[in-house]
Amino acid sequence: MRVIRATLAYDGTDFVGWQVQAAGRSVQGVLQEGLERMHGHPVRVVGAGRTDSGVHATGQVASFLSDIDSIPGPRFRDAMNAYLPHDVRALESAEAPPGFHARRSATMRVYRYYTVTAPVLMPHLRRHRHWVRRNLDLERLRAMAGLIAGEHDFTSFTAEGAASGSRVRTVMDSRFDAEGDTVVYTIAAGSFLWKMVRNIVGTVLWIEENGGGPAEMAAVLDAHSRSAAGPTAPARGLFLEKVLYDETLGS
Amino acid sequence: MRVIRATLAYDGTDFVGWQVQAAGRSVQGVLQEGLERMHGHPVRVVGAGRTDSGVHATGQVASFLSDIDSIPGPRFRDAMNAYLPHDVRALESAEAPPGFHARRSATMRVYRYYTVTAPVLMPHLRRHRHWVRRNLDLERLRAMAGLIAGEHDFTSFTAEGAASGSRVRTVMDSRFDAEGDTVVYTIAAGSFLWKMVRNIVGTVLWIEENGGGPAEMAAVLDAHSRSAAGPTAPARGLFLEKVLYDETLGS
What we know:
Two copies of one chain form a homodimer. Chain A is an alpha+beta fold. Chain A folds into two domains: 2-104, Alpha-Beta Plaits (2-Layer Sandwich), CATH 3.30.70; 107-242, Alpha-Beta Plaits. In chain A, 22% of the residues lie in helices and 30% in strands. Chain A contains five helices and ten strands, in the order βαββαβββαβββααβ. The first copy, chain A, has helices spanning 27-39, 76-82, 138-148, 196-209, 214-223; strands spanning 2-10, 46-47, 56-66, 88-96, 106-116, 130-131, 150-153, 168-179, 182-189, 238-245. In chain A, strands 1, 2, 3, 4, 5, 6, 7, 8, 9 and 10 form a ten-stranded mixed beta sheet that branches. In chain A, strand 8 (168-179) and strand 9 form a beta hairpin. In chain A, helix 3 (138-148) packs antiparallel against helix 4 (196-209) and helix 3 runs parallel beside helix 5 (214-223). Chain A is globular, with a radius of gyration of 19 Å. Chain A starts with a strand and ends in a 6-residue tail after the last strand. The model of chain A has no long low-confidence stretch (mean pLDDT 96).
């Protein structure tokens, strides 16, 4: 058995999320269906990030075991794409070292959240961008994002009803950049709490809209209570951008 | 009655085209429905270009008569957007001089056709790009595009079953540009034959794929026969980019 690692992009709009669920079309599900047709037997796929319904990816990483010996690792990409719907694509593939596991081996996940501030959201972007109809004070956003970096208890930014366990996470990067009329939030961490990125973005935008800044953001973070934070930003603005691995595992 | 002129963008994927038809969702139709709800009576909308099913726009121009006196011309944009589905947006609006007619007053239409040549088409672009899985010889494309500029009988590039009448048109601009892994064809003319742009692009790509160049393209143009040309390129790569008007009409 070989371990195959594939980098994936998908448009999350028409999926219930990454993970196979009792009902609905999942990214993991269409991958497993495609690989089953390709292999002639069921193939279990593991993903680095369990993206929610409507969340997109340009750099999700998946791994699976394959008993097909005739296809070189890099050619799995095209073979897989022949069996996948057009809203999921393999961008790259390779044979990974034995023991590689897309989720457990990952050392860092990078997400990006895109918010358009133009007076009109171009229709071609409507599935892939959040839209707020006002100018954003980039300096205030940046000051708030800076507070997120580092090791914190992120209870305020997890979802109601999330699994128990430690809510402490270490954020390696947390910043806002402007690209034309679009504000892009980038966050990198080893792992995230459920809906953490969308809750951080939703809270930052909510504080900014109400004239607040770093003091209010610090108070939310310190409250360790979901009810202190703002709304969850919509899924459509969020992309799983990249997953990093130890170099020994061929990142 | 005031004449209102609006610049529109739309994602043509889920439309049967610009024009109202017996069945199906048309851009003109959703505009007329929105304006009827806004005005309390039917409003007839005219568009500069009758885009086909699946064809997009970033700069379509529409005009209509309005008896609403309370909304300044530039504010029609937001009022219209409140009554439109998210795959059609008014980008700008203004009160136009009496007699302005989005179709009859137009002096030039500019279309762009986008073809991605990357090994994988990113899923987020799948509704808005044609995809050919090979490198394109840009110099040969440019030489073929150059033959299209000027006044010609474009019978070879019109659709089977198109209305009769002169097939002579004057093309003011016809060129290919590369933007990363995307090849963009731009064509400008006062008016076009039905499916002319997609037939030109389809033919150029077909000749290129078969190793031909300007000589083969000239032969197709001179044949004055649709059967001499190549396939029609898919609608999803085509955008109505811009419509120009005489400055006296406030272009």
